[in-house]
Design brief:
Layout: H1 3-10, E1 16-17, H2 20-25, H3 32-38, E2 50-51, H4 56-69, E3 73-76, E4 93-96, E5 103-107, E6 112-116, H5 121-130, E7 133-134, H6 147-153, H7 160-163, H8 166-169, E8 170-177, E9 181-184, H9 198-201, E10 210-217, E11 219-220, E12 224-231, H10 235-247, E13 254-258, H11 260-267, E14 277-284, H12 289-305, E15 309-312, H13 314-322, H14 329-334, E16 337-347, H15 348-363, E17 368-375, E18 382-392, H16 396-416, H17 435-454
Parallel strand pairs: 2-4, 3-4
Antiparallel strand pairs: 1-2, 5-6, 6-10, 7-11, 8-9, 8-10, 12-14, 12-15, 13-14, 13-17, 16-18, 17-18
Helix pairs in contact: 1-4, 10-12, 15-16
The structure holds flavin-adenine dinucleotide.
Amino acid sequence: MSIVDTLTSALPAGRVVTEAEDRKAHAHDYWALEAIRDRGPEPSPPPPCVVYPESTAEVATVLEIADEQRVPVVPYGLGSGVCGGVRPGTAAIVLDTRRMAALLEVNGEALTARVQAGLNGAECERLLDERGFTLGHFPQSIALSTVGGWVSTRASGQLSTRYGNIEDMVLALEVVLPGGHVMRTFPAPRAATGPDLRQLFLGAEGTLGVVTEVALKLAPKAAWHQGFAATLASWDDGIRISREILQAGWRPAVLRLYDEVEAQRNFGTWVQAPAPLLLVMGEGTEAMAPALEIELEAARSACRARGAKLLGDEPLVHWLGRRNHVPSWDQLLAGGLVVDTIEVAATWDRVKPLHAAVTAAISAVPGIIQASGHTSHGYTTGVNIYFTFVGSATAPDDQERLYRAAWAAAMEASLAAGATIAHHHGIGRVRREYLARELGDRGLAVLKAVKAALDPNGIMNPGVLL
Ligand SMILES: Cc1cc2nc3c(=O)[nH]c(=O)nc-3n(C[C@H](O)[C@H](O)[C@H](O)COP(=O)(O)OP(=O)(O)OC[C@H]3O[C@@H](n4cnc5c(N)ncnc54)[C@H](O)[C@@H]3O)c2cc1C
């Protein structure tokens, strides 16, 4: 019997879908290279079926059957991944988690919640907000992504400096492993019970199993938000100010530094002459307001001490209004523009040369019009840089060549500058060939051994990460 027939007879009616439209919608994620390929003669083909399980037990049934029949499985949240984490081809089935989308429990005393992994991010935040809480995780793609997708890609939200990244918010996980075995980690505030098994699945990109439930740490809903913008004499000044604020112990929810190119592109109303721009915003409960005011004043003082020009909060309000804008690859490509973003991170001592090296390397690629960057996730030890490139090419072949060359330039320059190759989008297919250079041969061998132990038949999302 074919995998489609076996699954159809093993699961309740309506779970296995073979309609052309559904299959086509699951042929790939939001990777820009797939949008380029869709314009050429060989777009990524659709899978034989999409399975929509409605419970952990049904996910277990799917993985048991797929493992027995050695059929690859590609887990799918909402397909907003940008690294090629979803490309089933004609052999793999897609397991779409969107019907597992319940808020199962909120515990106000412990400040925790339990959700099913297919819950849409914006819906998760709305349900928590109604109850007086926030998760504090606000990726630009919040309305296009799921909690399980966040876990699987090690995502970061725009307010990460205050609330942390997704790995800081996950209290416990339920995961279905190949063969259909269900594993649950223990929901303790901390434990010293051997290596932390949650971490295996944070960033596994569907290669080790399917995340089905997530216990999350919450924060009280914020009621106080204030901030300001400042223009600076140089990018180096902005980096130094950001470092000083964070190393002094402050944690403004937003701390973003745009280079001259991005400051003019995004804040042209306020930045007429070329200058980098810093955005700072504090947020928290009313009870925290006095401390947050002091934090904001400390950030203003750090800016003043380096001769920055303070601009008030209009640029911040402008950014808050546009921060979840989703670019249409199709529109840009049809207009002859090849665009993508590449996020890396480095310790403070390496950030200045990193920005210079990566923008120069991308700019040297024939066809590139512009390369720029901003920081958006800061730590006491360092910061990420989120690079954007824009290139000009019209034929799909030329667009793909340009795209690959820009990525190769950025990856090589990042590695040479001592940066990690991925801050929060993951590896997928786009960074796969560079992973060994960061992990080292031994590190990669350990990762492969974990994969072989958990997924001996190699059915989980083959071609991704490793
Ligand atoms: C406009 C735009 C803005 C973005 N902004 C941000 C941002 O601010 N921060 C950020 O971190 N990312 C951002 N992203 C990237 C993307 O939204 C994240 O990677 C997100 O976490 C993916 O979630 P998803 O549910 O759409 O997962 P998918 O794209 O469906 O899947 C992503 C990967 O995870 C696997 N996977 C999904 N669900 C599960 C599961 N339940 N169990 C096991 N594996 C699973 C898939 O197989 C795939 O490998 C952005 C993307 C876009 C298009």
